[in-house]
Amino acid sequence: MGYVAVKGGTQAIEASIERLKFERLKGQEVLDVEAIKSGMRGLIDQVMSEASLYDVGLAAIAIKQAEGSAEEAVFLLRAFRSTLPRKHVTRVADSATAEVERRISASFKDVPGGQILGASTDYTQRLIDFGLLSETKADALNFLSNYRSEDSTSTDLGALPKVVDYLREEGLLVLFEDDDQEPDDVTKMNLEFPTSRSTRLQMLTRGQTGAVISLGYSALRTYGAAHPTVGELRIANIPLYIHHPLFEACDEGEDYYIGDIKVTEVESFITTEQKNQLGKTDIQFSIGYGVAFGQNETKAIAMSILDKALQMKDSPLPVSNEEFVLYSIDTVESTGFISHLKLPHYVTFQSKLDSARKKV
Amino acid sequence: MPFDKVHDTQQIYRKVLHAMSRPGEISNIFSEVEGLTLQSAMLKPTVGFLYLLLDREVGFHVVSRHADEVSQLIAQLTYSKETPIEEADYIFVLQDALGELPAVFGKGKTGNLIDPQKSATLIVECPAVANNQVLSLKGPGIKSENFLDLGLSPEWLKARALANSEYPLGIDMMFVDGMGAVACLPRTSQIKEGA
User: Fold this and answer.
1) pTM of the prediction?
2) How far apart are CA B17 and CA B118, in angstroms?
């Protein structure tokens, strides 16, 4: 026998699911998945990033099914993701050699290779374009045939130097050894505190966009002098390779190319003060790192702030408390736990009522 | 019918899951593995278990006179990696090495108190898996008492009891014979000899 208080209701549930379908279709329009794929880039990138699953087609279906709710679409994709076998792991990918679509630095005006604005809403006036109401396919095709992408042959977009290398060469960055430890995998284990950096970065990059931005902002407001500067924000298509599963050691030239992923990568510079041997304080820079699937610029910058904040273990800031940050930003964790409040609590609530009445 | 990697593996999964939750009850996977054409030192049902259990996320170890050959084959089939027996998630004890079964318990991992699930699972090829009153089983998943006859000499019982003495640590076992009969003994089952 199950939990008697919540038995029954099957017909009501079936009717509710039917009603959900009705709500999706009552406008008598069927949303084309291809249309979502080509026109909802922002939402798709957000959903893929929060779901940790890079698949534009699946994200588009999930968005259609979820009627545009990012929370629900991410839940669908995470559920689907959990059923997939993991057959291969790619080689370590390097964004420095990836084909760049956009690359800006807020730290140096004249970065080698130049500021490459790419596609961004940053430079628009944020006025609603009512012309879109009557946009036709012919307009689109017309625009496309007139559009010529600027072939700036002078710049090799696949070999733009990293801005951090600048500071590194000048000795202004705190240097670290390469850490080649096998990273933890947060999708296969429970969070345990204190966490490793690989755990934190994974949790941050799949965090709910709004939550990551809010918490990142809260850190920024209280930072005082240690204001991070965006050293580099790049949006790049990173090629991924896998090695032959049976001959791990074989030459990299024998790798299999499996496709590109578009990511937003941010390296923020944060000043730190260190006492030198003479007892004077030297100012050095350390890096906060942010990366997210797709074009998710605000999220990636906020992630870089949180990455740094979480390394400051002695800080009194709420965002330096990893348990607070990492649990709060995960979308399935937080929306799931809040949603569970909608489930029947008849018995627990009755017992609370009981004890309240007894006191009177 | 040739072996269907998706649906036959799913069927095997359901049956092994049943056998694991009802220790001592025998499931039969012969009809699923019948279509396997692979020639090896392993029994056909054991090959079915490879598709069920192994991928590149887990490590395995084979105890057999033909261990090298079989391990290489398993790696090719599943991309799983061969590990020392102390680190293996799945340990296959083949028919030709049943004498080494007791020693395997001392080497296979039993998990730790935070993660008792990070323990080894043993897959043992038996002469015959039947319900004769040779071993009497009690514990979770058994209403009163179940009986099992694995056709093995009983030295392994003590070794198993020792490996499982500190619950929740321990080693889970799956038994299979050439006719596809499967029985399981999770670490929680208590075994007594005789009826």
Assistant:
1) 0.86
2) 18
